[in-house]
Write a structure and sequence with these properties.
The complex is a heterodimer of chains A (597) and B (207). Helices cover 51% and strands 15% of the residues of chain A. Chain B is an alpha/beta fold. Chain B has 8 helices and 6 strands; from the N terminus they run E-E-E-E-H-H-H-E-H-E-H-H-H-H. Chain B has one domain: Nucleotidyltransferase, domain 5. The chains are: A alpha+beta (597), B alpha/beta (207).
Chain lengths: 597, 207
């Protein structure tokens, strides 16, 4: 392959060209050099070529204002026949030039290539630039790749002095305490050393007296992504890496960070989130996290990984806010009764995307004195941090959704057995309930009640919700704007929820996990399960992309769920069609099972 | 003549050895340039049929003897080559070597004196020495190989030892050298050639 082909292949729209098309392009290519200050395109003059900057930089001037700078890999002259700007070499420049005639022929031959330049024409420059970023699926590399040093270990009977000397000699921040088979018993870190000093211990004491246990462990074959999640979730600085049961190394966030740059800031920022002391601080950190998540999405991070990442951030944030406010509240107002903070809806399912509202409730014990005021403070604070309030007022500060556990149980009983208007709507929200903070026993009690009170009737009603909207199909159906939520996401979440309740899976709230469990219990076939999982992921990714574009544009998520079919590429249109087919099949299955006429 | 208007032909040969009288040309890449512009679209890449194979050099060039068996004989491509070079200034890396080879083959097969058809020769290695002299840099012969020059000018080398790829590499280096030479006010072909010849003379004296 000639060098110009390789260079062209590395640039976004040209990578879409077939080999023979690229060949044709290279055959007609000119490589031109311009001296600093030379005018490449003159305002009002016909553009004869499409210019791809190979090296140097070109200034784009409107009147005398510099409006853009084109650098290596950037393309100019593709959007119009006549220049409406001056293009001037800001330093010596080398350009690959394609005659317009050849360029137009390629546009006609290759749809993807054409679409790229058409969105360019519409001034969608920023989003395309972002697309140029090469997709990196770095998160899938195994943790093994992070291991550099052998682990520093000692036994439980080692003295603190010896352990610390060993750490110092090896310049590490932790030592793993292992048994004779190299199985980890605990870990002694710099933080433990500080504790030891505070407690004025003796250096002759055993290290096991001050170690942290159990040590948080990860398997070396697991993806780095999982180690990354552990750092976020646990807020620790050291993870013990195991091979089987044996310690093979220790990794720190630094090791993970070195592997991926933008992601790294999420780890750092989530750590800051945990350490934050005020709502204001939380807000600043959270904003950065959302931006970083948006960039990760653009880089091709997939829905399931992304949502588990977002969930982790949301949960950490919520817990932090609750902890901060609870301490404050109890200092002033006295102790709150035992309570459990739960999230519902997409947060409950761990499927929230960037622009998700607050969906939360409180289950408490006793008379619940002060609970409502406290809940209101939490809701307000979460809003301030950046999670908008729920327009349907499904929030813990709403007296309807802050109840005593007995009250909750009877409410569920009522919904599940009497089928009043609105019962189904409430159940679709509250059956996805997931505990976040507080007394877990309360959640168990409510789940128990749900299992005892469910009726075939209510399951049937719930399932009916999912067959209500038939997805569009065929070339006539799939066009214009399509509401992904109404026709794609709802039928799947609702149908799967109904089946999950049918199978007593009340504590499984994630749609994918529900589908997996239903597959295991043979309620749905392998084929349907696979179709639903990948279809659901595809729909959510499309939706996510809509949201992300909003976030990158103005920093605030918007809740647009309508996709424009014209904007999809061919592959995506096909996938959308297939997904709707799977949904239709799934709806048939539900109709059969619950015998609707 | 203005350097920016000059018609160049950048060439590179792959041969079976170093002796123009005995060895043969295996492949030939020619890329025309007009001033600073490389007209890649008008380039040619020709494979030649050698009379005898030297397996050792086949391996170096990565040319498959099977492919070469289908290649043309020099007499058949000579006209095309002549047309590409006629009236142009030939540019190459160690261009004298390549030219000697071509001249010999034209003499042998076509009874033509190629030197009468092209105008001048520019060797990018010697041009690099001209530039080094301007900048007061010491000249080190190791830094004048094609690879070293490509590295110096930040051109990534992905595919060497193909006559066309090497010719393109040479053209790109020459393009950047021209940009630099122009900055020193040397903007005619004549001054370029005379600068080059002065260096060549010095070099001959050194040797």
């Amino acid at each position: 392959m000639l060098p110009p082909r390789e260079f062209l292949k590395s640039i976004k729209p040209f990578e879409d060209l077939k080999d023979c098309e690229l060949e044709y392009l290279v055959k007609n290519l000119k490589v031109n050099a311009y001296e600093e200050g030379e005018i490449i395109l003159r305002r009002g003059k016909k553009i004869k070529n499409v210019y791809i900057v190979f090296s140097g930089s070109i200034g784009i001037y409107e009147e005398s204002d510099l409006v853009d700078i084109a650098k290596s890999g950037d393309i100019i002259g593709a959007d119009s026949e006549e220049a409406n700007y001056n293009a001037v070499a800001r330093e010596d420049v080398i350009c690959y030039e394609i005659p317009k005639r050849v360029f137009k022929e390629l546009m006609e031959k290759n749809e993807k290539f054409q679409r790229f330049f058409e969105s360019l024409k519409k001034g969608d420059f920023a989003s395309i630039r972002k697309e140029i970023v090469i997709l990196e699926r770095f998160l899938y590399k195994p943790i093994r790749e992070l291991l550099i040093k052998a682990p520093i270990v000692c036994s439980a009977t080692t003295s603190i002095r010896d352990a610390v000397i060993k750490m110092e000699l090896n310049k590490v921040g932790s030592i793993v305490i292992v048994d004779e088979k190299m199985k980890p018993i605990g870990i002694f870190t710099n933080a433990d050393l500080r504790r030891f000093i505070v407690y004025k211990g003796s250096p002759e004491e055993r290290v096991s007296a001050y170690m942290s246990k159990p040590a948080i462990c990860v398997d070396l074959s697991k993806p780095i992504f999982e180690a990354y999640m552990e750092f976020i979730k646990r807020g620790v600085n050291h993870l013990v890496v195991l091979e089987g049961e044996k310690v093979t190394g220790v990794i720190t966030p630094k090791d993970v960070l070195s592997h991926f740059e933008p992601t790294s800031s999420i780890v750092i920022q989530t750590r800051r989130l945990i350490k934050a002391n005020s709502i204001k601080e939380l807000n600043a950190i959270y904003k950065n996290i959302i931006k970083t998540i948006a960039i990760l999405t653009m880089r091709g991070l997939q829905f399931y990984e992304l949502t588990s990442l977002i969930s982790e951030v949301y949960d950490t944030l919520s817990v932090k806010v609750i902890e901060l406010l609870k301490k404050d509240f109890e200092n002033k107002m006295g102790k709150l009764p035992d309570f459990l903070w739960v999230v519902m809806g997409s947060s409950g399912r761990r499927e929230q995307v960037i622009a998700t509202d607050q969906d939360n409730a409180i289950i408490h014990e006793g008379d619940g004195e002060g609970i409502l005021e406290f809940a209101k403070m939490v809701n307000d604070a979460l809003e301030k941090v950046g999670i908008p309030k729920c327009s349907g007022n499904y929030m813990a500060s709403n007296p309807l959704w802050a109840r005593d556990v007995e009250d909750w149980k009877s409410l569920f009983r009522e919904w599940l057995q009497t089928l009043k208007p609105g019962s189904i709507r409430h159940l679709t929200v509250f059956l996805d309930m997931r505990p976040i903070f507080g007394k877990l026993k309360l959640y168990d009690e409510v789940c128990e009640e749900i299992l005892n009170s469910k009726t075939r009737m209510v399951i049937r009603e719930l399932a009916e919700d999912s067959v209500m909207f038939k997805p569009p199909h065929g070339i006539f159906g799939i066009k214009g704007r399509i509401d992904l939520k109404k026709f794609g996401i709802y039928p799947i979440t609702n149908g799967v929820r109904a089946l999950a309740l049918d199978k007593d899976l009340v504590k499984v709230t994630n749609t994918r996990e529900r589908i997996e469990k239903l597959r295991e219990s043979n309620v749905i076939s392998d084929k349907t399960a696979n179709g639903l999982i990948s279809g659901y992921e595809f729909l959510q990714e499309l939706r996510l992309r809509l949201h992300v574009q909003e976030v990158l544009k103005d920093g605030i998520g918007n809740k647009n769920n309508e996709i424009e079919v014209d904007k999809l590429d061919r592959l995506e249109t096909i996938l959308l069609k297939e997904t709707f087919k799977v949904i239709s099949e799934f709806q048939k299955l539900l109709k059969m099972r619950y015998s609707y006429i | 003549m203005k350097a920016k208007k000059t018609k160049f032909a950048v060439i590179d040969l792959e041969t079976t050895g170093f002796n123009p009288k005995k060895d043969e040309i295996l492949s030939l890449g020619i890329i025309p340039m007009t001033g600073l512009r490389i007209d890649l679209g008008e380039s040619v890449y020709l494979l030649l049929k050698p009379k005898k194979f030297k397996i050792s050099s086949m391996i170096v060039h990565g040319l498959d003897p099977k492919v070469l068996r289908d290649a043309q004989e020099f007499a058949k491509i000579a006209d095309e080559v002549l047309k590409m070079l006629e009236g142009r200034t030939i540019v190459g890396h160690s261009v004298n070597f390549d030219c000697k080879f071509l001249e010999q083959k034209f003499r042998d097969f076509k009874r033509i004196k190629l030197e009468n058809y092209y105008k001048n020769k520019i060797d990018i290695a010697i041009l690099e020495m001209v530039l080094a002299k301007f900048l007061g840099e010491p000249v080190n012969f190791e830094n004048l190989t094609l690879d070293a020059l490509a590295g110096k000018y930040g051109i990534t080398i992905s595919f060497r030892h193909n006559a066309l790829a090497d010719a393109f590499l040479t053209a790109q280096i020459f393009q950047m050298q021209l940009l630099r030479v122009l900055k020193y006010g040397i903007d005619t072909l004549e001054s370029l050639i005379s600068m080059q010849n002065s260096i060549s003379k010095e070099l001959r004296n050194d040797l």
